[in-house]
Specification:
With about 260 residues, this protein is of the alpha/beta class. It is built from 7 helices and 7 strands. α3 links the parallel β4 and β5.
Amino acid sequence: MSTAGHWFNPVESDPDARIRLFLLPHAGSGAIIYRDWGQLLPSDVSAQAVTLPGRHNRHEEETYEDFEPLLEGLYEAVLDEIDDRPFAFFGHCLGAQLAYRLTVRLEREGERRPLVLGTSGWSPIGFYQPTEEESRLPDAEMLQWIKRLGSFPAEVYDNPEMLALVIPALRADLRVSAQYVDDGATVSCPLASYGGSTDPLQQAPDAMSHWARRSPQYLGHSEFPGGHFYIDNHALAVTTDFARHLHRFQELLVH
């Protein structure tokens, strides 16, 4: 659907960085959720945020509305992009879902695995899953729903032009997520999970604990005060913790 360069922001990674980090955003969003991460991460970690078709600089492209074609497009884009340096994934919400399945796919296909997989604001079990019907809610109801989640900056809600871009992308992503079927797949790479203590999308108190069964190298769960978008207020703590894992496993590769 697109060349690999269109998927990542910035398009080029820092050639001097030792580790590459691909950041996958939540439903309806793009690279903006990770706008501060480049400054928060250590200089030897080069972060590139994924932008899916239908948003931001790709807003004229057709959105994916089916899970498997989206995963395939992302898989091909990552394979085209990675070089000989270690790389990692971190995803929030739908981004966590995609990062997890992307890792599963890479390992099943015999490709290189991520140095570390970071999952935030989603778990394969115990989390809200949208339905096809919910993705087709009238605009007014959809707007009220995203307001309750606090999933976009306040200025978006009163800006018709911005809403006209956000809502179609969100609908498409909800349809993608509605198709997800958990098969209990595991990954062999280290996995760390993160979440908000009052996330309204977490439907079971032990939801995040299920990640422990998805990797033999589970690094534990870090919980922060806040709801689904706790990550906005705790970006420094999350990046510090995740970078610690990246450096630890990068050193193990070297030695």
